[in-house]
Design a protein that fits this description.
The complex is a heterodimer of chains A (617) and B (356). Chain A has 4 domains: 10-210, Pyruvate-ferredoxin Oxidoreductase, domain 3 (3-Layer(aba) Sandwich), CATH 3.40.920.10; 223-405, Rossmann fold, CATH 3.40.50.970; 423-495, no CATH class; 500-614, Rossmann fold (3-Layer(aba) Sandwich), CATH 3.40.50.920. In chain A, 39% of the residues lie in helices and 19% in strands. Chain A is built from 20 helices and 24 strands. In chain A, helix 1 runs parallel beside helix 4 (147-163). Chain B is 30% helix and 19% strand. Chain B has 12 helices and 13 strands. The chains are: A alpha/beta (617), B alpha/beta (356).
């Protein structure tokens, strides 16, 4: 085997050679379907186990085999884990994209590449490690069919050696990944060891980065939002799921099915306390959810933008006939089929008023894994308490990427079923009017089908109705009902999760953001303060409709910058119409290229807005 | 899991005098709903009356029924029967999905879905097929008049080829046969009838209610305003002159302990899930309701020869109803207490450990 290390030259000498510790972004390029996922997770796991905060973004194509995919691991001991456009270490395993991958690196970056493609590593400002992957894999894996997969764990071994990850950490991570597959674990360990040993012997140049053990992940979780939300639905007592497969929401349903089967069977009879239907389309999944919700189940569906479009008519029925339902929208890039495997916050505006006529919906917008878990439970409760459709606006970044998270709190709040009147209640109260505003909060009482009482039944309809649910075309009945629904929406305002606010008296600008933008915004604020001397305040919207705190925030800061992952500033528009008196100060910092949002572009766009304000842009 | 047909009422509770009551002490009036707003003479009103009678005669507790519909004239009728049952007049073409969801949320209820030919055979054809495929426990009635009444008489997908609509348009497209489709989708109870044949409709309804799983009743129900002219195959006159019952039917509910004497050569007895029985006495045509292929052939032949066979086309107990297949707990999902819904704290910690 040849000595395969290019000596770095010029500007890389001297101070640059003090390796940066625990602050690295590793980008691993592979063709999809090559089985790199488990290797990447093992690498990530080993860093997490070293106590270094770590997160990952998987940029994958809408394809099953052969197209390029990038797995980006960011380790940062200060806990900045948002997507980063910059790459410190590129593992260029995909010949198809290697030239472009290498061209995109900035000077001083490290590059791991197959020796077979060494001619592509034609830059002298990089630290290059040419690894004889073909020879290494042939040695440890006699089965030629498996080599395409096994080669991945070899780069993990190489990286461990270069970055200073103890090999025992890799072994432990392999055992964790292949907990029930001893044979696979053994093969992976052998292969990882081959990579590790080769690098120990041949990679003589000092790495620009090192990973060192810390104690900053103890008790934390690494989880995807779709898994966290599935757990929220499990513990929130969801009894009905109807779904239609669509990226990036399918794994939420598949995760939940796995948990339901295991944990939601009657201990005595082993019968299911839930029903799951894979529907024929999203119209059907939403219809089934409404049917189940009407009959009293805690029902939900999960989908993405195209599914939401199909559910529009049903959304209006839920709103108007006051049938509880929860829809999780794991957003992806639209319009149309768009970029099915790229993240977006492009559905928020549409979901807010989905359907024809005067329609308004409650949206819960989780910004981290803990909220994915909690808002799922909250949404099931709110849907029943408000007797209406509640959206949970997740996105591909939250749903399908590995996020580090503080531990979840075990659910303690009792499951809320809202204003459901029983037969005994009917006997006590006498008359029952389904759509009467008894409590002045716009939220009526309902009975469930099957309630054994002569007054229990009512007739649910999407047509105009009186408060006793009888058909009516009378103008006063229509207005009274639709006004009550508006009142109910005002009640919702006070019931949904409040924003998270960090005020700062010295701030020139107030940043408003929501959902998966949070880590990038947090990091951008840090950069703005440290590198640009710009103090910022921050409000993270966690639900629509917004409540009074948002107004106070807009009032307080002369420039309000709304960070969103869509082209048109959908939430900014909602805020401008909510608070017309502040409309001119509400500006946007928008990110909509399909990649997860990053701190650098947020900081740049906020600075631009500040300069614009000062007339110096 | 058995369908709840009874609500125990002791003899003492039944009033000694006054109007006639059924076995749970309710009068026929207790099964009625709001006044119909359909055109005078509409076939749908006849079906509504048959539904009222069928439920009354079976002595079903109205609180144990959920009635659902889509949109259209037929779908309005859920308001005109069983005023003491919860009803859901939903969206055009989507009732099958809503009924599927509801039937799983509360498997103890009898679900009756009312739809029309526009609702089911056009906009909702996919959902209809899939509901039947899944075998949701729903009585699904199509009040089939070959046209869109509520939007003033446009042709529907069940209008026969060559039919001249009132507007003058002649139908060129192939018709959708919902019974054929139901059989193809694995339905275990498929029947066709005519709204004017009230005796048969009522018998079929009772049997459908007793069936566990999807039961499809395609009932030709003339639209007297828009599709009752000469040249229509869904007019009153056409149906009256062309209807050919396959058999004489009787339904013996499980609670009637009657022994039936019949001639094995001419009469077949179908025993249902709950012990109810249907007797089918052969008429001119020799049709075996257990024979799926024969039923499909019969429907094809009817199509070719413009025949209008009515009766129980196909019956099978082979497939489990959806809620049985999903192995749901006996208690409705809708009313399960928190103790059955939220896994324990131990389970929570155990799961969390997997992510640490």
């Amino acid at each position: 085997m040849s000595q395969a290390v290019a000596e770095p030259e010029g500007g890389l000498a001297g101070a640059a050679f003090l390796p940066r510790v625990n602050d690295i972004t590793i980008r691993i390029a592979t063709p999809n379907g090559s089985g790199s996922q488990s290797a990447n997770l093992i690498l990530m796991r080993s860093i997490f186990a070293m106590g270094i905060p770590v997160g990952a973004k998987n940029l994958f194509p809408s394809n099953i085999q052969g197209m390029p995919t990038w797995f980006i691991i960011r380790a940062n001991e200060d806990g900045w884990l948002a997507y980063r456009d910059h790459t410190d270490l590129m593992v260029a395993m995909n010949p198809q994209t290697a030239a472009e991958d290498i061209a995109g690196l900035s000077a001083g970056s490290m590059l791991v590449i197959n020796e077979a493609q060494r001619t592509l590593a034609n830059r002298d400002d990089l630290i290059v490690f040419c690894v004889p992957f073909n020879a290494l894999v042939a040695e440890v894996c006699p089965d030629t069919r498996l080599r395409k997969m096994v080669v991945n764990i070899i780069y993990v071994g190489v990286l461990a050696s270069i970055l200073g990850i103890a090999f025992e950490e890799i072994e432990r991570a392999i055992d964790w990944q292949f907990a029930k597959k001893a044979k696979a674990a053994e093969l992976n360990k052998t292969a990882a060891r081959a990579g590790f040993d080769w690098a120990q012997e041949h990679c003589l140049v000092r790495s620009a980065h090192r990973l060192e053990r810390r104690n900053k992940t103890h008790g934390d979780l690494v989880i995807e939002g779709n898994e966290a939300m599935a757990l929220g639905m499990l513990f929130g007592g969801a009894t009905f799921l109807a779904w239609y497969p669509i990226t990036p929401s399918s794994s939420l349903c598949e995760n939940l099915i796995k948990y339901l089967d295991k944990y939601r069977r009657d201990p005595e009879t082993n019968q299911a306390t839930y029903a799951v239907i894979q529907a024929e389309d999203e119209l059907a999944s939403m219809g089934m959810v409404l049917g189940a919700g009407w009959a009293g189940a805690r029902a939900f569906t999960a989908t993405s933008g195209p599914g939401i479009s199909l559910m529009a008519e049903m959304a209006g029925l839920s709103y108007f006939a006051e049938v509880p339902a929860v829809v999780v929208d794991v957003q992806r890039m639209g319009p149309s089929t768009g970029l099915p495997t790229r993240t977006s916050q492009g559905d928020v505006g549409k979901a807010y008023t989905l359907s024809h006529g005067d329609c308004k919906h409650v949206l819960l917008i989780p910004g981290n894994m803990k909220e994915c878990f909690e808002f799922a439970q909250e949404a099931l409760d709110l849907a029943e308490q408000l007797q209406t459709l509640v959206f949970i606006m997740s996105d591909l970044d939250l749903g399908m990427n590995k996020w580090m998270s503080e531990p979840f709190a075990p659910p303690t709040k009792p499951i809320a079923r809202g204003k459901v009147v029983s037969a005994e209640g009917l006997s006590r109260n006498g008359e029952f009017a389904r759509y009467r505003d008894v409590d002045g909060d716009g939220i009526p009482y309902r009975t469930l089908p099957g309630t054994q009482h002569p007054n229990a039944a009512y007739f649910t309809r999407g047509t105009g109705h009186t408060e006793k649910a009888t058909y009516s075309e009378k103008p006063e009945d229509w207005e009274r009902n639709i006004d009550r629904l508006a009142r109910k929406f005002e009640s919702a305002r006070a019931m949904v999760p409040a924003p998270v606010v960090e005020n700062d008296a010295s701030a020139q600008v107030g940043i408003i953001a929501y959902g998966s933008s949070d880590p990038a915004v947090q990091e951008a604020r840090h950069t703005l303060a440290r590198e640009h001397g710009v103090a910022t305040a921050y409000l993270r919207v966690r639900a629509l409709p917004v409540n009074g705190e948002v107004k106070a925030f807009c009032e307080r800061y002369p420039l309000v910058c709304v960070v969103e992952q869509n082209r048109d500033g959908q939430v900014a528009s909602i805020l401008r119409s909510e608070y017309p008196e502040f409309a001119t100060r509400i500006k946007t910092a928008l990110h909509y290229n399909g990649l997860p949002i990053d701190a650098e572009s947020v900081a740049r766009k906020v600075l631009h807005r500040i300069a614009e304000e000062k007339g110096t842009a | 899991m058995t369908t709840m047909l009874t609500s125990p009422v002791t003899a003492a509770e039944v009033p000694a005098k006054g109007p006639k009551t059924n076995r749970i002490g309710l009068t026929q009036k207790d099964y009625q709903g709001a006044e119909s707003t359909l055109c005078a003479g509409c076939g749908h009103d006849a079906i509504t009356s048959s539904i009222v009678k069928a439920f009354y005669e079976l002595g079903v507790d109205p609180h144990q029924v959920a009635k659902l519909s889509g949109i259209g004239c037929s779908s309005k009728t859920t308001n005109y029967f069983l005023g003491q049952s919860h009803g859901f007049n939903s969206l055009h073409g989507r009732m099958a999905t809503i009924a599927t969801g509801s039937s799983l949320a509360n498997r103890n209820l009898i679900h009756i879905g009312i739809s029309g030919d526009g609702d089911t055979a056009s906009i909702g054809l996919g959902h209809f097929a899939h509901m039947v495929r899944r075998n949701a426990h729903v009585v699904y009635i199509i009040e089939n008049n070959g046209c869109y009444g509520l939007t003033k008489g446009q042709a529907s997908a069940t209008a026969d080829r060559g039919t001249r609509m009132k507007s003058g348009v002649t139908i060129q497209d192939a018709p959708v046969d919902l019974c054929t489709m139901a059989i193809k989708m694995g339905c275990g109870f498929v029947a066709r009838s005519f709204s004017g044949d009230t005796q048969q409709v009522r018998t079929l309804l009772k049997a459908a209610i007793a069936h566990r799983g999807a039961a499809v009743l395609d009932i030709v129900s003339p639209c007297v305003t828009f599709n009752n002219h000469e040249g229509s195959t869904k007019s009153v006159a056409y149906a009256r002159s062309h209807e050919e019952p396959l058999h004489e039917m009787d339904f013996i509910p499980h609670f009637e302990n009657i022994s039936v004497e019949y001639d094995e050569g001419t009469t077949t007895v179908v025993t249902m899930h709950d012990g109810s029985r249907i007797t089918l006495t052969k008429l001119a045509h020799d049709h075996d309701a257990h024979d799926r292929i024969q039923a499909l052939t019969l429907l094809d032949e009817a199509r070719e020869k413009n025949l209008f066979y009515t009766g129980l086309l196909y019956y099978s107990r082979e497939r489990d109803a959806l809620d049985d297949r999903l192995d749901l707990v006996d208690e409705p999902l809708a009313t399960l207490p928190q103790s059955k819904l939220r896994p324990s704290l131990d389970v929570f910690h155990q799961i969390m450990q997997g992510f640490q």
